[in-house]
Design brief:
The protein is an alpha+beta fold. 41% of the residues lie in helices and 20% in strands. Helix 5 crosses helix 6.
Length: 187
C-alpha cells in the first residue's frame, strides 16, 4: 500500500502530540516536551494558526508527520517555509514515508511561491543528515542559529520589571524545558 499524506485536522491533535513525544525520545530528550493537546489545538487549529501539519499514513496506520510554518525573506521579498519537525516512526523507516513527507512539504513551498525550505537537524543525527543531503539539502556553515529565551527574552523585550509573574514563569518554564532537552541530548 502506498504512503498517504494528508493535512492534519483538530481530531489529529492527540496523534500529533504522540509524534512530538516520539521525536523527543529519538532526539534523546524524552522529558523535554511540555506541549499539551490544548496548546496544539489552540496554536494550530484556532482562528489564527501558527503552524500547519501533515500526517503520513502507511498500512492504514499513522507513520510520520511534518509540522511547518511560513517565514519571509527580506532579501528576496518572498515567503519561505520552515519545517519545524519531521519524524517517521522507526518501524516505517526505509519505506518512503520520510521522502513522501519532505516532497509534499517542498510541493507546498512551491505552490505558495516560497523561495526556500529550511529546517534544522542535530549534528549527531547522521542518518537524517545523509538522507537530507541525498534529497538536495545544503548545510551552510556561515549561518548560525540564534536563540534568545527565558530571562534574556524578557530583558530584551524590556519586560523584566513590567511582566506579570505568570508571563515570567511561563517564559522561565519554556527556557528550562529547552535547557533540559539540550542537556539530555548531550548525554
Amino acid at each position: 500500500m502506498p504512503v498517504s499524506i494528508r493535512t492534519a485536522t483538530a481530531q489529529d491533535v492527540p496523534q500529533i502530540l504522540a509524534f512530538i513525544r516520539a521525536l523527543a525520545e529519538y532526539e534523546r530528550a524524552p522529558d523535554a516536551v511540555s506541549a499539551t493537546e490544548a496548546d496544539l489545538l489552540r496554536n494550530g487549529f484556532g482562528p489564527n494558526p501558527y503552524f500547519q501539519c501533515l500526517i503520513a499514513d502507511l498500512d492504514e496506520q499513522p507513520a510520520g508527520f511534518a509540522l511547518y510554518f511560513f517565514d519571509y525573506s527580506t532579501w528576496l521579498g518572498r515567503p519561505g517555509l520552515y519545517l519545524e519537525d519531521i519524524f517517521v516512526h522507526p518501524e516505517f523507516r526505509g519505506r518512503g514515508v520520510g521522502r513522501a513527507l519532505l516532497q509534499r512539504v517542498a510541493a507546498i513551498a512551491v505552490e505558495k511561491g516560497c523561495c526556500r525550505l529550511k529546517w534544522e537537524v542535530l549534528d549527531w543525527n547522521t542518518p537524517a543528515i545523509d538522507f537530507y543531503r541525498a534529497m538536495g539539502a545544503e548545510f551552510p556553515a556561515e549561518w548560525l542559529n540564534v536563540l534568545v529565551r527565558g530571562e534574556a527574552l524578557l530583558r530584551l523585550a524590556g519586560q523584566v520589571e513590567g511582566a506579570s509573574e505568570a508571563k515570567r514563569a511561563a517564559t522561565r518554564e519554556c527556557a528550562a524545558a529547552f535547557d533540559d532537552a539540550i542537556a539530555e541530548a548531550a548525554e
